[in-house]
Amino acid sequence: MNNKKIRVAIIGLGRLGAIHAKNVAEQNNDFDLIAVCAAEEQLKWAKTQLGISATYTDYRKMIDEEQLDAVFIVGPTALHPEMTIYALNAGLHVFCEKPLGVDLQSVNEMVQTIHSHPKQIFQSGFMRRFDSSYLYAKKMVENGEIGKIIYIRGYGIDPLSGIESFTKFATASDSGGIFLDMNIHDIDLVRWFTGHEPVRTWALANNIAAPELEKINEYETGVAQLEMDDGVIATLVGGRHAAHGYQVELEIMGSNGWIRIGEHPEKNLVTLFTNKGVVRPVVQDFVERFSQAFIDEIKAFAANIKNKTQPEATVEDGLKALKIAKACQKSVDTNQIVDIKL
């Protein structure tokens, strides 16, 4: 395996799937992308833009017929468990986008299957752990440069321009709710930075900025307060109404200082001076903000396969993030404080 390319396939060519496909095909010499599975209209893009001739609309058929070492799963969230289970049972390494799934029973079966294949690599798409800014902040926290963590606040707010696309998606599929859909990364980062677990949550949500979402039982803005087992307080803010672009931010308040990551989602170091005032261009979506992190996480996946090492972020991290998100959603639905049982 160390001296040859890893033969991979991708399931799902939506916006994120297309990013992974291009990165695998063009940004990583360890992989050989030999097949893709997606909707018929998306397969045309794979043929013309990536030169992939082996295309499928049935992921099982693709896995059965192609000689693969690994698979990237970027299909609908609800199908992640069954796709992962099938791939692992076929002897493949698996990179699965987050969240692990929507239904806890299916995810638990997925987790059991992962544990029953200890020699196969399973990696979840928590790409923010590979972002240089978060890695730099993590070292600062570990070195004690801001003292003991007191409070953490995580923002995950999509651009207002994406509300129509989300409405279409959520009408056809189960998003899992505002916290699972928007704050799964923030939940993972809270656990990653603190090294502790939340024990209780109280959450609220509304549709003031997008009342049309009520018809599909979705929320536009959600805020959750988490109580950690060491007394640290964390706040999650998820939304879909950032008029300026893509706002993803993490604030860590310590006893001796603060850290803010992404307070201003700046596109570059350019400042524009015009009759409209002084303007700093900002990033417009997650693709732009985390472009390098997406590349680095698949490099890590290749390295894990070749070195036979499991990733730092385990399937348990994904399972706990899912349970926490569901507890936040339950708090909104019941209007009560919810104990978190991990």
UniProtKB/TrEMBL annotation:
The record's Gene Ontology biological-process terms are: NADPH regeneration
GO molecular function term, any single one: oxidoreductase activity
Tell me which residues make up the GFO/IDH/MocA-like oxidoreductase domain: 134-260
Gfo/Idh/MocA-like oxidoreductase N-terminal domain boundaries: 6-121
Keyword Ribosomal protein among UniProt keywords: no
Entry-linked SUPFAM superfamilies: Glyceraldehyde-3-phosphate dehydrogenase-like, C-terminal domain, NAD(P)-binding Rossmann-fold domains
Q: Which GO terms describe its cellular component?
A: cytoplasm
Q: Which UniProt keywords apply?
A: Oxidoreductase
Q: What family does the entry list?
A: Belongs to the Gfo/Idh/MocA family.
Protein name per UniProt: Inositol 2-dehydrogenase
**What lineage is on file?**
Bacteria, Bacillati, Bacillota, Bacilli, Lactobacillales
